[in-house]
Amino acid sequence: MIPPLNPASLRAGRRRGGSKEKTKTENSMKNNHTTTNNAERECRGCGCKFPKPEYPRHNATCCSDACTYKYRQERHRERDRQILAAKPIKVCTCPVCNNTFTPNRNQKYCSPECSYKMLLESNRRNPRRRSPPCSCKMCKKEFQPTYYNRRYCSDQCSKRYTEMVMMRRQAFRRRFCMLAFQDADETD
């Protein structure tokens, strides 16, 4: 006859109906957690000595979180220096102001101002690309849009219009909630 399953013995790693000896893995895990190894390690961040952690999976290389952060920053800086040293530095000249600059990816102009100037210039040269003049939704002033879907003459007008719309929505919600509560009171 087969002995019945004992959940406690299964959790402990014992075989069904076998002896009460613990398995090798269970003994080794217990020994690793209870005994402390007095070996010391050297911190990679500051160079001081610190005790080796008692848990086997804890591979601490630094003595504290601050040292870990410092060590990682230095490692990343070193890696970035190596990458930059391997790549030749590309220097471009801006077609608008003739300044030299190091481009980021496919950068054509040295600054956003030069890019904007070039956009306006290309709109002047090519009338088909130019959007027709339109009026600002906030101040009703007529302006030449730089993009076809631009609705405001400036960022200030855009922010003011957004605030005005939000205030209208809040007022509508307040009125709607007040009406809903009044209707609920009347029905009671």
SSE map:
Elements: H1 7-11, H2 24-34, E1 40-42, E2 49-51, H3 65-86, E3 92-93, E4 100-101, H4 112-125, E5 134-135, E6 142-143, H5 155-187
Antiparallel strand pairs: 1-2, 3-4, 5-6
Describe this structure in words.
This protein is mainly alpha-helical. It has 5 helices and 6 strands, in the order ααββαββαββα. Among the domains are: 29 residues, no CATH class; 40 residues, no CATH class; 40 residues, no CATH class. The strands form 3 sheets. Strands 1-2 form a two-stranded antiparallel sheet. Strands 3-4 form a two-stranded antiparallel ribbon. Strands 5-6 form a two-stranded antiparallel ribbon. A hairpin with a 6-residue loop joins β5 and β6. The relative contact order is 0.04. The protein is flat.
Describe the structure in brief.
With about 190 residues, the protein is mainly alpha-helical. The protein has helices at about 5-10, 25-35, 65-85, 110-125, 155-185; strands at about 40, 50, 90-95, 100, 135, 140-145.
Which terms summarize this structure?
mainly alpha, 6 strands, two-stranded antiparallel sheet, 45% helix, 7% strand, 188 residues, single chain
Provide the helix percentage. Answer: 40-55%
By DSSP (H or I, 4+ residues per run), the number of helices equals 5
Shape: flat
Instruction: Provide the succession of SSEs.
Output: HHEEHEEHEEH
Major sheet details: 2 strands, antiparallel
Average pLDDT taken over every residue: 76
Which stretches are poorly predicted, pLDDT < 50 over at least 5 residues? 27-37
Strand order of the largest sheet: 1-2
- Gyration radius, in Å: 36 Å
